[in-house]
Amino acid sequence: MQIINNPPNSAWSSLLKRPALDATKLESQVRSVLENVQRNGDTALKKYTLDFDGVDLDVIRVAEEEILQARERVPEKLVTAIRAAAFNIRRFHEAQLKKEHLIETQPGISCWRTSVGIDRVGLYIPGGTAPLFSTVLMLGIPAQIAGCRKVILCTPPSKEGSIHPAILVAAEVAGIREIYKAGGAQAIAAMAYGTEKHSTCSQNIWSGQSIRDLRETTRTNAGRGNRYARRPERSLCTRRRNCQTRMDRRGFTFTGRTWCRQPGDAHNYR
């Protein structure tokens, strides 16, 4: 870890700059992955899991036994914290549900607007340097509240071929039962195109800087709705001297409004 004491103001911009990948160098690779998964399905998915994650899997889907074992491996304090976070997230997003008003535009003619949950959504949970089980809750619970019929979760496996138990516990709390050991562009391709074992999703939601950098490539080539979700835990609190504290809650709004669309509108999701 590098510690920098009292840097000059002129150095702040460079010191705070986040690392970023050059997406142009990866675009051709990503396109190749997408096309291969579209053509060869689970065979290609397993190949890339071996190439990129270093593990040879016979079965990609997480078994029910693995979810049961995960509960025993997660400390009780963490399970309690996950459930408390889920309660707070659910309470916040349930407040966004609105009762639609019936408007009589002409005698005998009534109009109203209805929000309809997306039928099938795919969630991508990064699992690189740290298990982002909070993202499972941030994405999965709004989908549950919106009434999405089917929710699929993909996350990369470890070298041992397992998923971090905290991610599995969070998925169970969020009501997600269909979980796959797949990461990277190949996972998003599987959710977009479908494979022998993988259902096709109408909308794919992900988080993670590297994949965000490639969102245009996947959106263009996968031919499905793909969106980057800004996570609520990245909300920013700002305060100036003699000013009132305020919070930027755009992350909450984005996540909460991702899951519904207006009837007849295939692109403008609420």
Strand order of the largest sheet: 6-5-4-7-8
Per CATH, what is the topology of the domain at 26-90 and 115-229?
Rossmann fold
Report the total helices.
11
Question: Which percent band covers the strand fraction?
Answer: 5-15%
**According to CATH, what is the class of the domain at 26-90 and 115-229?**
Alpha Beta
Find the structural class using helix and strand composition.
Answer: alpha/beta
CATH level-4 homologous superfamily of the domain at 26-90 and 115-229? Nitrogenase molybdenum iron protein domain
**Roughly what is the average pLDDT, rounded to an integer?**
77
Level of helix content? 40-55%
* Overall form: globular
How do you describe this structure in short?
The chain is an alpha/beta fold and 270 residues long. The protein has a domain at 26-90 and 115-229: 3-Layer(aba) Sandwich (Rossmann fold), CATH 3.40.50.1980. 43% of the residues lie in helices and 15% in strands.
